[in-house]
Specification:
The structure holds three protein chains of three kinds. Chain A has helices spanning 44-51, 73-78, 96-103, 110-123, 125-129, 140-152, 170-186, 198-204, 222-227, 229-236, and strands at 4-15, 18-29, 33-37, 56-63, 66-67, 81-84, 158-162, 190-195, 207-212, 215-221. Chain A is an alpha/beta fold. Chain A has a single domain, classed as Rossmann fold (3-Layer(aba) Sandwich), CATH 3.40.50.300. In chain A, the strands form two sheets. In chain A, strands 6-7-8-3-9-10 form a six-stranded mixed β-sheet, with helices on both faces. In chain A, helix 3 (96-103) packs parallel to helix 6. The longest helix of chain A is centred in the C-terminal third of the chain and has 17 residues, at 170-186. The two termini of chain A are 34 Å apart. The relative contact order of chain A is 0.18. Chain B has a single domain (2-278), classed as Orthogonal Bundle (ABC transporter involved in vitamin B12 uptake, BtuC), CATH 1.10.3470. Helix content of chain B is 73%, strand content 1%. Chain B is globular and about 60 Å long. By secondary structure, chain C is an all-alpha fold. Chain C has helices at 22-39, 46-69, 79-96, 101-123, 128-147, 152-155, 176-200, 202-212, 214-219, 224-250, 260-273, 280-298, 303-317, 321-337; strands at residues 16-17, 20-21, 161-162, 252-253. Chain C starts with 15 loop residues before the first strand and ends with a helix. The chains are: A alpha/beta, B mainly alpha, C mainly alpha. Chains in contact: A-B, B-C. Chains B and C meet through helix 4, helix 9 and helix 11 of B and helix 5, helix 11 and helix 13 of C.
Amino acid sequence: MAAMLLETVGLCAFYGATQVLFGLDLKVAEGGVTTLLGANGAGKTTTLRAVSGMVHTTGDIRFRGQSLAGRATEDIARLGIAHVPQGRGTFVSQTVEENLQIGAMSRRDRAGISADIERAYGYFPRLKERRKQQAGTLSGGEQQMLALARALMLRPKLMLLDEPSFGLAPLIVRELFAILRTLNRAEKVSMLLVEQNASLALDLADRAYLIETGQLVMTGAAHDLRTDENVRRAYLGY
Amino acid sequence: MDLFLHQVLAGVATGSIYACLALAIVMIYQTINHLNFAQGEMAMFSTFIAWQLMQWGAPYWLAFAGTAAFSFAAGITIERVLFRPIHNAPVLSHVVVFIALFAILNSLAGFIWDYNVKSFPTPFGSRSLFGDGLMSSHDAGMMGVTLAMLVLVYVFFRHTRIGLAMRAAAANPQSARLSGIRVGWMIALGWGMAAAIGAVAGVMIAPVVFLDPNMMNSILVYGFAGAVVGGLTSPGGAVLGGFAVGVIENLAGTFIPYVGRELKLTIALFIIVVVLTVKPSGLFGRTVVTRV
Amino acid sequence: MKQPLKSDLMQAPAGTVAGLSIKTWSRAAVIAGVFLALLLPLAIKDFLVFQLTLALIYAVAILGLNLLTGFNGQFSLGHSAFYGIGAYTAAILMDQADVAYYWTLPAAGAACFIVGFLFGLPALRLEGLYLALATFALAIAMPQLLKSTPLEPWTGGVQGIVILKPDAPFGLPLNSDQWLYYFTILTAALMYAGAVNLARSRTGRAIMAIRDNPIAASAMGVDVALYKSLTFGVSALYTGVAGALGAIAVQFVAPDSFTFNLAIALFVGLVIGGVGSIPGTLLGGLFILFVPNIAEEVSKGLAQAVYGVILIAVIYLMPSGAAGFIRLIVGRIARSWT
């Protein structure tokens, strides 16, 4: 059985005095893609933010066996967890290339960074065309690609993806997910994918969790959830 | 016309003082998106330290370097000790801490070194250039130092990795953290740099206005005005703004009849406010377009 | 930096203590406070009565600033100017036109409303720090204008104007300090009632909406420009009336009483009391009157430094001001009680 890259045990999260996550037990296997599905406000984004140390949590979060509790967001990133946030998190005033350089800021190997920038351009040729352009002028789809590329610059073991398809045209989304698949297979990047587009997510993932108002209501292999009657009706629309 | 040009030149000379301080102010603003009201007092305190070092026998450039280094460390320390604990507090509460810092530094300086005005040496001599005593060699030296600092700041931000990290931390702290940047230390670094620049500004200004705990008060006003007029997003704009404020102040004092001299500061500020009404983000500031 | 919804500061926290709701306790506290305030002058020295009067006057001035900054989100470093205009209006009317002291208050209010509104009109284009600089310019300009030669016949130049404190009317057995204290309480009560009414009204909600999300407010039909300027005017009015009262209390106006230092003091009072909190302004007024004196008691030579340290300590303890802190404590007590 594959070792667990990321594991949460009894994860609870709080915004001030309000509790929003109630004891989640999540696993992401090494080399796997796990998707977290749910309606708006169910707690999907909060779960990712909890892993990145951006919200107050209780319970255990383990990455490669190490506990992430109490660590600062930047330290968690340096452990090899790249979080692509909702809204992309683009550095709008900086150029595309500067955005990539920022992504690699925690690394020291100059040659490696340059090589990785070229490799990012390989995955996203449109970004190469716009390398000197101000990132804020890019389209939504291009900014999403930039966010992905920036995350890759971290040379992450695990990517946390928060609704990568949000606000993008279907064609672009398809392209994006194809790249995600390649990244998972070729670059061996594990992923925890939060998505509202359940169909695409279940196609990409091997494991799926369903979350409703802060609690996990279903878990299983992605294939099984895909064919489940209730999931089909509630989340796949047929 | 002759008088006009002369006054412009004199204005540029005084303006270099404001430009120097405006640069320090913009530096901090770029890092933490707050105005540091205590900037002037920190610069004043640093200048006193330089003075004290020289009283103890240190040669000028050693005192200069030592003060800049000390100020750099002090700036970092103040940020980590004083401002880090309240980083979640509302903006206005931060402003009160700035005000408190101002009061503490001013009072301490007066207590340690008393309020008697002291003279402060200049390494540039005080020869009069262009005849007429409108600009001295010290003024020219001060301008040179300001421009040199500006170049260094520019190079630092545009062409170094850590400069990029600082810009990222200021632009989008959350995203920067997700990229592994230690945003807290970037902010502290910004403070350190601003404190060092402020120290240089103080050391350059003191020979002209003489050294006492209240020397920075009116200059701070002009410095802020220069920074804001230039647009707080641009170090170059801040320097130009500082010069502009010096020129405006001088012209207002000379050419507006009767009340010119009494209301110099008021008129200068008034003109600046008019500029801002026309161009709300300053002459060289970038208007950030926000999508609704 | 996430902050609590500012309208939260207007309401008492939910919960009960010893069987009575917190709302009931607050009302009881207010009534007790009013009783205390009314009986106090009869029991304490005249100088302390004078100081309390001044603290209440500052509280009203801070309330003016609060309307602008706390409720409308417009940053002002210039309220010392409005305080000064109010003060000089009162002084000039009393000294040169023999106007009775109570008429000077509405006059000061009206004058400041006009100036504030006119200043607010162009100022509404400015945001945050740029607005701060514009108001700062106003604060710096005021003493200089007051000293300037053309205005000297009215303002008395650097010397200022001396006026007399009024005696109690109807032959009441109070000295002038005590009378002024009750007069101030009456005026303040009216003004606070007005502020509370405003905050709870549709206009008040529009004003706060502009603070929280100007684009959304505008999209919902709020005339942002008009409201921002009006708020400036009303805010100036409040601080101006306070200034007039202040002039009468101190019996003297001079340009150097209305410098930027006063603007800073009002701002500090605002934050310490709690931005957006009406009752907090009372605490703010007390703070800026008494704490500098305390600081001087601790150390004559380092008075300012001590004051600065106290400020820092207070902010560390109560980052959102006293009002928010008290709410927190009361909320905790209520929770531990149930």
